[in-house]
Amino acid sequence: MKQDYINLKHATLCSIAFLGLYVAVYSTQNVQSQIYDIDGYKNLGYISNAVAYLGQGLGSIFCVYVMQRVGDVKAMAYSSLLSLPFIICLILPALNTDNKADNNFFFSQSFVTILTIYVSFLNGFGGGINQPASGKYISDCATENTKGFFFAFFWSFYMGSQVIGNIISAFALGYFEQYYYVLIMAIICFCSGMLLFFLKQPEVHHNVLRSVENVTLNAASNQSIDPLNQLMIDAIQAHNTLEEQSLKDNIKSLWGLVTQKRFRLFIPQLCWSGVSIAFYSGNLVELMALTVDDDEQVKFKKSMLAMIAFGAGEVLGCFFIGFFVDKFGSKVASVVNIILVILMTLSTLGYCIAWQYGWQAFLMCFLWGFQDSATNTHSQEILGFEFDNNFEPFSVYNILQCICCATLQIVEISVQTRRDYIIFTVFIGVIGVFCCSTMLFFDFREHKHGNTDQHEQQQLHPNAQAQLTLNDSHQIEEDNQYLLENDQSNQIYNGEQRKHSQDITEVSLED
């Protein structure tokens, strides 16, 4: 229905901003390992990626606290600017193509290493805030009926950055000096960060609808309860509780979520997303470069051209799994994810055995992007709709993802030869199948809120619908006055002027 897509314009602007931001960030991360190696800084690219993901994990711990203080929109906007120094810093190795380290302190190994680690940490810390904040923002834009579409829509832009970024990388690094590439990415990053400042808060109604349904059923069994007033009291109390939480309370709350039995089943799939990122950002480009027998510029160009297929897989995979989520449910989507991981592993193993750049490189990259997009989109819709709130789960997701990614980035330094890649690929494939298989035992809430259950509830409580119509004009006037009085202390929410809660409730009731 039309009401399900009322926030599509907000989701679109957010998606476009993240497209530009991660065109710059992800393409830079994809190529930095090779750039640092070529320019005489050896494995600094791997170390940079590992530090970035450690910073991202730490940023995720502070994410909930920051969002509660400034709102998810400003949290995304300000944190996105922390990626700019990381990109600009790459200008040093780019200018050091003639190995000036012996004559200039600013190109020395020690200075470049310290600076790179520092800006990589800032970049990761910013990502640790803006990525969970974007997940919360998109889940606020979506409804239970459109969660698969909205997360697929956002992910197609977010990881579409791999297509555009890798096209720019292929031609900029193939035909121009490295510093031109760095300048282009810095400009894109800055403009995208500025765009996030123009985001508006979406009209959140899926959580309100659930609350209305619960209060309605209580009201039908107890005529003395006013469902509208009870809903507003619960909303105000919940909001005040969140604003009163300290950073220590936030950390305790995150730990409490991790220790929940239901969430523990979800942890392996969240960890798999970190493993996947580590491989495609650290090993995939390096693997293809090893199989190209040519000069460094040609290796760059061919590797990044194949990575365009990776980006195409990212764009298509999210809509593919989104269809399964909305049509058949998240449990069936879990089976699809397992199949995709197996196909991706077989294609990578085949490339390692053939050890020759060709069409297999494009197939391998496409399947890596396809499965990464599918598992991440699946995970994000679960994070947004399967737990009591939609900000703490995204923070934990980022923390676990970053720990696994950073750990594997360090391990990848030792993967150098054809034999290493074959063994490592088999190991990654086994881990992937295991991690995605745990979701087959996950108790999805969506099965408990189907149309059949709603129909049975209406039969058990025939007066519920009548109570929420509020046809009595006098009752409406009293409720409006109640909302105005109780909303004064909550006019500032997510760092912006809120609409009155009355507007949210009316939208929900009309739906």
UniProtKB/TrEMBL annotation:
InterPro entries according to UniProt: MFS, MFS_trans_sf, UNC-93-like_regulator
Molecular-function GO term, any one: transmembrane transporter activity
Residue ranges crossing the lipid bilayer per the database entry: 7-26, 46-68, 75-95, 107-129, 149-173, 179-199, 270-292, 304-325, 332-357, 421-442
UniProt-annotated location(s): Membrane
Stored Pfam families: MFS_1 (PF07690)
Principal cellular location given in the protein's record: membrane
Keywords, sorted A to Z: Membrane, Transmembrane, Transmembrane helix
GO cellular component, one term: membrane
Membrane topology designation: Multi-pass membrane protein
Taxonomy, superkingdom: Eukaryota
Protein name as it appears in the record: Major facilitator superfamily protein
This protein's encoding gene: Contig15823.g16865
